[in-house]
Model the fold of this input.
Amino acid sequence: MAEPVTLPREFIDQMVAHSREDVPNECCGVIARFAEGRLKLYRATNAEASSYRFSIPPGELHYLYRTIEEDGGEVLVVYHSHTMSEARPSPTDANFSRMLEGPDDWPYWLLVSLAEDPPSVRIWQMSDGEASELELVAGDLPADSSMVQLATSGEERKPVVSETAIT
Ligand SMILES: [Zn+2]
Done:
């Protein structure tokens, strides 16, 4: 049995809040892990603005990978919401994860389902398009962890991405 995944309670609450705010659309974002176990949650924009699918805009994706790598971190979790279906990766999600699979372990996929009340939050490991569920444990917030909202401005071909702290 795979190890359970522990995420701060504050982050789990934040992902549920983000999911609710973006109704009727799916929301999406990323959690990165840095040295000494510091975590950072990034609320991203759903470029699809859709109830059925999500994608992180290329400018934000590029920003995320660049800034996280520069800081010596790694993407730990990619999260998104399902507004009407269960918190399990859809066939579209599975295809997407297969496309993104690299030599390293692809990050965990976390899904928030608003189809249930209270919302359900489940975490998955994707491998070759197959999803295996892991146990999600709510834990404490590691020191110096933070949460930010990403926003994109500027021209489409030269997007400027900024982050604002969520307090
Ligand atoms: Zn999905």
